[in-house]
Amino acid sequence: MLIMTETRSTCPYCGVGCGVIIQSDGKQITGVRGDPDHPANFGRLCSKGSTLHLTASSVVTGQTRLLQPLQRLQRHGPTQQISWDHALDLAAQRFARTITQHGPDAVGFYISGQLLTEDYYVFNKLVKGLIGTNNIDSNSRLCMSSAVAGYKQALGMDAPPSCYDDIGHADTIFIVGSNTAYAHPILFRRIEDARKTNPALKIIVVDPRKTDTADIADVYLPILPGTDVMLFNGMLHLMLWEGWVDQAFMAAHTSGFDALKTTVRDATPELVAQICGISQADLLQAARLFAGLDTRDDSNFIASSADTTRATGRKPTLSLYCQGLSQSSSGSAKNAALINLHLATGQIGKPGAGPFSLTGQPNAMGGREVGGMANLLSGHRDLGNPVHRREVAALWGVPEVPSQPGKTAVELFQAAADGEIKALWIACTNPAQSMPDQATVRRALERVEFVVVQEAFASTATCAYADLLLPATTWGEKEGTVTNSERRISRVRAAIRPNGEARHDWHIATHFAQRLEALLPPRMPIPETGSRTLFPYTNPESIWNEHRESTRGRDLDITGMSYAMLEQAPQQWPLKAGEQQGQARLYEDAVFPTPDGKARFVSTVYRPVAEPRSARYPFSLTTGRLRDQWHGMSRTGTLGRLFGHASEPVVALHPQDLAKLALQPGELVHVTSKQGSIMLPVQASAEVAVNQAFIAMHWGEEFLSGISATGQRLAGVNALTTSVFCPDSKQPEFKHSAVKILKADLP
Ligand code: SF4
């Protein structure tokens, strides 16, 4: 007789981090429902989360899972099944040989914000501690590195200071570059709820595209793509001119404003309106609402004066922002310019007030915490800091962590295309579809001598380039932790045993590392027993305990957060040893983790997009998410009902542009950039402004084929996107490519 069980876990899709209860019969996942006790969602799930059980069973029955280790003797040739021992021995031998012959910087690791924190931790230690290179980066580089840079530059640490409850406390919500309705649906429902309970709430939405999120705005600012810094500087200009800044807060708790003055003085309303393509009246209204001083109608203000923020005479403003700011060649400046507004008005560290970046992936935050990126180290330490490198080396028991910066995502694949990276390990991500400028990425994957792909799904575009395919467990089978956008750490739990021969990501990394240890010269004296390993892990909890010890004394100290505590309830960091509860909101004392304790204004100069529209490429292309699909559709693409909302890839254009190009809806067009070309149907959409185009990011090989400028076969919208990146964060500019659109000549 089958016994039905229920297992508490976390949704594997977006950074909202909703709690789920998985129902299973011991062999299969049979159902899923929202966890009513989880503080991220209180029982609610969106279309993706509520169908997790259906995708979980269809990916197995549909044979889309990778279930055995497979080897290819030649690139793109047939695969043959091998044992785990053979696979891990082969991988260790090939990596050891490459490191011995060409040095540690000849290998690279590209991992994922879908991995659990424990997986991330082992990979990071393996690469920086054992191999001795910093060539490890994550697909989180594509979604949050500009937010990291913005927080660190302005506030001194990488930490969203707000929490989800702040949505209910805010009187103005400033949503920038985020289609929250699609990308973070459960948070969007909280915003809708807040509107019902707080009639004074005003919502400002800034987005070139009039999305479903923009539909609920009181003030909608359809800025031209890439002009956010000019908008924020212009708002600050008006706040200064009108006397809406909080001089007392600025004097006591900030520094660096003088360096910003000239830039802000020059951002006059006339100039801002012209560059951003908005009206001066809307600009003024946005600045006034953001400042929280409603000079037109004080009645609501007085009526809602309930908490400490309002008692100071200023209504609280919460900013929610995402890829529209970060996926940009000036992503860090955009993040910092927005934080400047919060510092100028004292809108931080109070209920309902603060800059709050929303993370795209379920565990991009956890990856930041363990330092699983090319420029970071464990416990929010910086690779560029020699003290931090020594601390991490001591924690790991290795002589040193190399000082040479590692290659970030775009740089890693560029180096591979140039022949510098000879062995590449890719875990839980699909760069052949998701990286910008696919032509370069696919050239890199062809050129690398040995490619390992550690993956749960057999059909990703990247799998076709693997010499060795290692089957990984996935949601429902894995144990560990993830951190959501509000710094809340939740347990991920297994409801069923791994399918096929799939193994956990931490386990694969650990057993590969142990083999590599035996082949490389020792990095520390071997004890007489000869049994010492840097990777003694037997379960995720043993990794977690080492990770939390690495945070002792750091800004994100989680030494008090044991698995036993997380079994009771998810917790927000920091949570030090001896404490019973994490911190919901940071900087309530207005003391910032900078040398002088003050937050820093960053001098943010507006720079246009890297590839402006031109006579040859007259459209601005932006990319983004659909409501019911996730990333490259490995999981959501297996379920028919999730295609009900959008059944095929289209390029959305304004009706005026269709008329100008003499196109009818549904006709096929070529969309072409300097990088490549794709062919797909055109759709008339009033959401998209004139001279702009939108294509969803999800569609891959089966749906949307393309070709590079040199005739190479490509797929998906990243055949078109540019790999130009922000100089500070190295995050690429997915949100703008210049393209031309021509009717397809069909026989
Ligand atoms: Fe999952 Fe995000 Fe939907 Fe929550 S909002 S159920 S985390 S996809």
TrEMBL record:
It comes from the Bacteria. Keywords: 4Fe-4S, Iron, Iron-sulfur, Metal-binding, Molybdenum, Nitrate assimilation, Oxidoreductase. Signal peptide: none annotated. Its cofactor is Mo-bis(molybdopterin guanine dinucleotide); [4Fe-4S] cluster. Residues 4-60 form the 4Fe-4S Mo/W bis-MGD-type domain. Belongs to the prokaryotic molybdopterin-containing oxidoreductase family. NasA/NapA/NarB subfamily. This is Nitrate reductase. It comes from Rhodoferax lithotrophicus. The lineage of its organism: Bacteria, Pseudomonadati, Pseudomonadota, Betaproteobacteria, Burkholderiales. The chain holds residues 1 to 747 of 960 of the full protein.
